[in-house]
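Subject: sequence -> structure tokens, single chain

Hey, anyone have a minute? Need the predicted structure for the following. Not urgent.
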Amino acid sequence: MANPAKSLTEETLEVMKMALDRRDEVFAIVDQATDWETAIADLANLFGVDQDLCASVMNLQIRSWLPSWRARVDEELEKHVATRIQGSAP
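Reply:
Had a minute. Here:
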């Protein structure tokens, strides 16, 4: 994990959120990639994250690009951030 204060779930949700925000770029990378590893490496470069976090983007299903699914990602991410912040409060 790039940030030890964040959980893997929180980091994964952040990457998914970035992918949803930049779907055209994500689809272009996937269209141009010659294989799974290349796509993951290029996504990691696009988002500035570790490659292991980008497997979740590659595993997204078409339904995951619906606005309703995006709202669930936002809600879940907010919960994880709030939990982390509460846990670090004095």
